[in-house]
Amino acid sequence: MPSTLSPALFDLSPIQEQLTEWSKSYATGSPYPHIVLDDFFPAAIAQQARDAFPAIQDEGWIHYVHVNERKHGLNKMDLLPPFLADLIRELNTPAFVSWISQLTGIPNLMADPDLEGGGLHQSQRGGHLNVHADFTVHPHKRMWRRRVNLLVYLNEGWQAEWGGALELWDRDMSRSVTKIEPLFNRVVLFNTDEDSYHGFPDAIQCPEEVTRKSIALYYFTEEKMAPAKRATNYRARPGDGIKGLFIWADKQAVAVYNGLKGLLGINDDLISSILGRFSRKKKR
């Protein structure tokens, strides 16, 4: 069934009018530049995106199941429901990306057509994502430095007691400064620097039939000199105790995998399959 999304349904004018105010808010965000924008899309678009969101059992999901995360991702444009694919394309248009550049004060941002690590994200009961700073360089484009994350939450009726709030930690990992509930039609944008730590580290406690749903898009700049490359930097929280050793060991494994990924040009399908089988065996 064809998508009904057209440029007229997502008019940039309203958010363009807020640009001056929002850019000031973004720059002064704590613990690092960020902004939370509620009711971002027209209600009809947000609802259609929610209704189109595919189940984890559908084709194409990558299963990130290891110590530092338990979530699922779908980033193949040809496997996305048409409406969600169109919405992502809209958020990657030059006009929208230019708006993000103006909002963040980072010139010459570029969208990632590969949706590397992005696309749709979904977590079931027990899902989590340990606190981390994101990978710094696109795995397949060594001159592309990662600069901005955009998250769109599509969770109607989400309850605070279920957990799953996005936590923004200060740069020395001493405390969580800001918690952002993953509420329906809420957009979060933030800088992805070497020490912009974030995550939802505690297992979510939503009902079995509910999942934590989001769209994740990442924006890059093309540098003249190759930027320093670093894999996702997971960090233990104060009080994590011996768990911190497992977080560190898993981080080293992820770093090795990401190095091979860039060197060999592979994607996440193989490791997803292995982790998925391992996870199913553990549940038996």
- Please give the alpha-carbon distance between the first and last residues: 38 Å
CATH superfamily: q2cbj1_9rhob like domain
Let me know the number of strands.
13
CATH class: Mainly Beta
Q: How does the major sheet shape up?
A: 13 strands, antiparallel
- Tally of separate helices: 7
Q: Hey, roughly how much beta strand do the residues contain?
A: 15-25%
Mean pLDDT: 90
Helix fraction by DSSP (H/I, runs of at least 4):
25-40%
Helix and strand run: HHEHEEHHEEEEEEEEEEHH
Sequence-ordered SSE layout with sheet pairings:
Layout: H1 13-17, H2 19-27, E1 34-38, H3 43-52, E2 62-66, E3 69-74, H4 82-91, H5 94-104, E4 110-111, E5 119-123, E6 128-133, E7 144-153, E8 166-169, E9 176-180, E10 186-191, E11 198-200, E12 212-222, E13 233-234, H6 243-264, H7 269-283
Antiparallel strand pairs: 1-10, 2-3, 3-5, 3-6, 4-12, 5-12, 6-11, 6-13, 7-10, 7-12, 8-9, 8-11
